């Protein structure tokens, strides 16, 4: 239970008064959190006020509200924006603060090291992809912001560029380069927009994706779908991006690797069926060396000069875990047409 404190006696402060004017909310308690403010109104309803971070423009918020409405009939809890009394989503309060209101969904952060929660996360995302695919909301230009291919291409190039320096610093990388290069190339080929084979056309898979499915952005509520929050990076993309992210977060956090990839593919494809070549593409994307790409980028940005040892320690951990990941992935795809 999140600790709450009563709203101050002078509840008619400018900020609370502005919220009341904008949304008709009578705030009973305020909870200050790291990046948002939790609100409990006098009717016991829970809300989150999220300040604008530059991306939360009105067309995008309106598109997210449409996505929320699209997912509601499928029972997928989604913290979409709430319109104010004027019927718009981006709200300006006194003092120049701009942001939007959204429901404060119950639950705790998902634990991807736990098999049930990890697979429930994949099933929830698959249901979201399936519900939104082909829906009119996916035609909204406000939801188009780069693709999985662009992300993987950039990370592959980063690895190639920084590998010599990183290997000189972390001996654990020696002997891993060829395996990393091959896995990255296979993944890139699977999501390449041009020249794709019949049945594996990434643009035909495009649907609404979260694109930032760290454990703190999915809330475990017990049974049923997980609640989806924090859509800052969400947009229309190749849905394989979300499955890859769940897998990589789980591996980094220490989830057991035995049977890991086959379970993810099976659960995802049962909820959101893929063509045979689409399933092959998912297998390839699950092998992308994302753990190492992230760690190398952080090391180059903050630890390459040796003044801070922590990025180097994280790179050592990522190298070991990436080697385990690639070994388990290679064994899992043995005999498959990947």
From TrEMBL:
Residue ranges annotated for the Aminoglycoside phosphotransferase domain, each copy included: 40-272
One GO CC annotation: endospore-forming forespore
Annotated signal peptide: none
Entry-linked InterPro entries: Aminoglycoside_PTrfase, CotS-like, Kinase-like_dom_sf
Keyword Transferase attributed: yes
Keywords per UniProt: Kinase, Transferase
GO molecular function: kinase activity
The UniProt record lists the keyword Membrane: no
PANTHER family: COTS-RELATED PROTEIN (PTHR39179:SF3), SPORE COAT PROTEIN I (PTHR39179)
Name of the protein this chain belongs to: Ser/Thr protein kinase RdoA involved in Cpx stress response, MazF antagonist
